[in-house]
Fold each of these.
Amino acid sequence: MIYMDNAATTRTAPEVVQAMLPYFSENYGNPSAVYSLGSAGKKAINGARRAIASVLGAKQEEIFFTAGGSEADNWALKSVAEAYSGKGKHIITTKIEHHAILHTCEYLEKNGFEVTYLGVGRDGVVDIGELEAAIRPDTILISIMFANNEIGTIEPIEEIGAMAQKHGILFHTDAVQAFGHLPVRVDELHIDMLSASGHKFGGPKGAGFLYVRTGVKLRSFLHGGAQERDRRAGTENVPGIVGLGAAAAKAAETMAERAAREEQIRDHLIRRIESEIPYCRLNGHRTKRLPGNVNFSFRFVEGESVLIMLDMKGICGSSGSACTSGALDPSHVLLAIGLNEEEAHGSLRLSLSEENTLEEADFVVEELKKIVARLREMSPLYEDFLKYGEPGIK
Ligand SMILES: *Cc1c(COP(=O)(O)O)cnc(C)c1O
């Protein structure tokens, strides 16, 4: 099997699983308990908190554990909305956010908030001038993702953070695709809140965190016990949090090496696909791009059909994001960067990890060439195109 869907989820690293195991079977005590079986769990949670804080250049008490990226996104937006509605009810985000942000914004709109959804350029980058123009006296939050999960574009986070700071507005970033893959330092980038998720960087599913800068008002997300400094009730997911911390530490240590390796395979894939498959287009920014992201649109084919045929060859990829596959709606991200519906339906994302090889990349390209050619042979659109041509396409 060739796994190239690491933006959907990653394999939990074996050493991360090893670090987690004792917290199921030996140190299973409740971290709130007074006896030592419980305090082992508590210590491990604080160790994970320290590890994550150190990667971000943050303080330990600024890290709040959650059940993943979606919860962290929901919490950040709903908490700011509730705690700062006295100042205003306007939020700025983008059209290319993950649904965890977009659907939360829609929910807030139903509850009296106004949301501006910034567009992006062909390459998926937010325009700083447009952002500044959207700022109003009643704007309470700017939430813009660090890097896009579908097209891999990395946003100008430092400039966005500086802009938010200049206007005295809180800045949240969904860094689920970036944390563990790119250097993320909250002070240098002027980030006030940040979401991340373990299973996107070699940690377990169902464990993530929200970073909240000291001084930002944070409302409780779950009411109950006093866990997470009274903000997020419920007995902690100790093994999950331990795995999250171990994965964060490991990712920080190996980041430069991993990124270089993934970029080499990414660029090899991009070069070969562009030169060997006609009528394709690279989606996302060519250089401001996640090290492991490849996203192409192929004209005259359905991305879903490409995926099924790749799967028959043991290759796992994705068309659109995992959260939208299964639904027939074209990806909102691809529409936002200016693709038409046909181009958006014909997209393929391959997302790499350090485990992928150049040999795998070559095998994928060879299979992809055959698959796209075969699907085009069966396409009436392609047949028409060959007969009559189409303005604007050579
Ligand atoms: C995966 C993802 C999420 C959701 O994270 P979960 O841990 O799966 O809830 C949010 N935002 C982005 C950009 C993602 O890629």
Amino acid sequence: MKIQVPFFRADLNAQEVEEVVATLRSGWLTSGPRVRSFEQGFAAAVGAPNAIAVNSCTAALHLAVEALGLKPGQAVLVPTMTFAATAEVVRYLGAIPVLVDCEPLTTNMDLNDAVRKLAQLKSEPLPGSLTEDLKVVGIIPVHVGGLMMNIEAVRKFSAAHGLWAIEDAAHAFPAAWRQTSVEPWQRCGEGTAAVTCFSFYANKTITTGEGGMAVTHDADLAERMRLMSLHGLSNDAWERYSGGGSWDYRIMAPGYKYNLTDIAAGIGIHQLARADQMRRRREDIALRYLEELGGVEEVELPANDVNRIHSWHLFPIRLRLERLLINRNEFIEKLKQSDVGCSVHWRPLHLHPYYQETFHWRPEDFPVATALWERLISLPIFPGMRDNELEHVIHTVRGLCAQYAR
Ligand SMILES: *Cc1c(COP(=O)(O)O)cnc(C)c1O
């Protein structure tokens, strides 16, 4: 039998389907009781007092930078190894993303390079920046693939440079971190950063189709993000039309339209309840990959760490190109011919036309990411992956490495 392994397949069960139907039958489609319940459940799951459900992680990031008061002409440290969203929200407010190189093993932001980039800004103004005297006010670390950065190092770095921090945790639910094995676990979202932003996009670790969550320990930030998530209105539709609510409202600020629907939240409530179980399945798959591909000389495998609970959103391997006769793109093409779906996370931001043309970043400004990205392939990893699918991926990767070894 021919096996075709997609890069990702959504894991949705009967309860989730029935909840969507029940929501439709209830007649309340937009933000209402299911959104409230999803917010409360998610806040409890990450150990935060405030969670604001929105229609994407991008929206959550935008609300976070807005609430923190980011202004045109200011700058924010952003890893070059990330998705478009992390940097674009800085541009939404007319501010400038100062890109930072990554660590070679984890692909997470390299704080040593952040120090270098800050020093560099002092001596030469960034081309394309509007002002000579660019003030860096924040940092947006990304937990790439769900392997958390050392958040204590991020906290110290931010404190030393007077920066706020927003975590882009699009990959990192559920995930946790501890300094050493004798210290307690700290969940992603438990309160190191000012705001932590999660994604429930179709292929993220839990999904609502499209959706996101902004989590914070700061009541003022929470209030501002909630206000701005729905046109800046003084009270939302559910408050106006349920029970003893009033039809009247006041526009307090020119806000956005970022609220999550109850249809989506209905899926989220059940995905949340299964989040640990789905994470364990992804972890099993990751451990199998690590074991079965561990001896293959042509590839390097992602970092694991006893001081992390890894969400295993991604399983990125790094090809050792010096040992192979084919490059990364050819390798992906061969995987495709064997019906294995893959992806690459990511072409770094500094190698995209917009960032090159606007800020004149050069590949040599980010030597690690520039070299690393040519070697990256993300293998399929999702909770509904069947054993024969996993076998097929392992067998195919091993086979290609043997066939094309230099
Ligand atoms: C997916 C992703 C986002 C955006 O999430 P959406 O919910 O699609 O807006 C942001 N950052 C990273 C690192 C992502 O992978």
